[in-house]
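User: quick one, fold this
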Amino acid sequence: MVSAALALAFLPFLLTLLLRYRHHLLLLLWGVALGWLRDRLSRVPREQRAFQFLLAHAVPGDPRHILRTFDLWCQRREHLSCVGPVKGRIVERLLAERAPLRLLELGTYCGYATVLLAQGMPPGARLYSVELNPQHAAVAEKVLRLAGIDEQRVELLVGPSEEVIPKLRQRQGLQQLDFVFMDHWKSCYLRDLQLLESLQMLAPGATILADNVLFPGAPHFLQYAKSCGRYRCRVHRASLEYFDAIPDGIAELCYLGAP
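Assistant:
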């Protein structure tokens, strides 16, 4: 009787939690569990399945159509952790305002944001994109070629960001960066930002954009950016990619130099 009474007492609380976080539960089921199950049953990674969809439906050589087809896949078929169209418009606007010539992307994944950045760069600009996972990098390279983006505009670098970043100056001849887009492991945001600082690779006035700072979140990164005195910081609030009901945002940092 006591256990039944306790269960009944907690029932309203549990129902409230389920109602409040129903969209997060849907993300867990559709974006994680279902994708994992399909990977195991088909033995074809979801990223490769997405690329096959691009091959069948996207217009080769048209970056914007490539992105729209990606969005169609993620909205109707399977969830992928791309920046998506809502936050993508924020990135495009800031990219157009800054017109950077030396860009770094941390976290290539399937190449969605890479295409977004490449098609919005000014003439003569070059993007270096770092991806830890070789399989994801292989898909991203095929996506870039399908979009008509060549190695003169984008160079893919495979490996851990903490190992690739210190080699950019020596191997790629990259002295400083005007624009950095972070969309890799959120726990690495602060580490890699401080690494770029220590190597003096951020040009005065450089823009750093960091995705998913509200969900799943990068609190230590945000706290540092707002309090260290090196940046002017704001968060552009939006929603999680392909989940309008889950709040998210992109942090925009302007590098002011050492305090």
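User: anything notable?
Assistant: The first strand starts at residue 102 and ends at 106.
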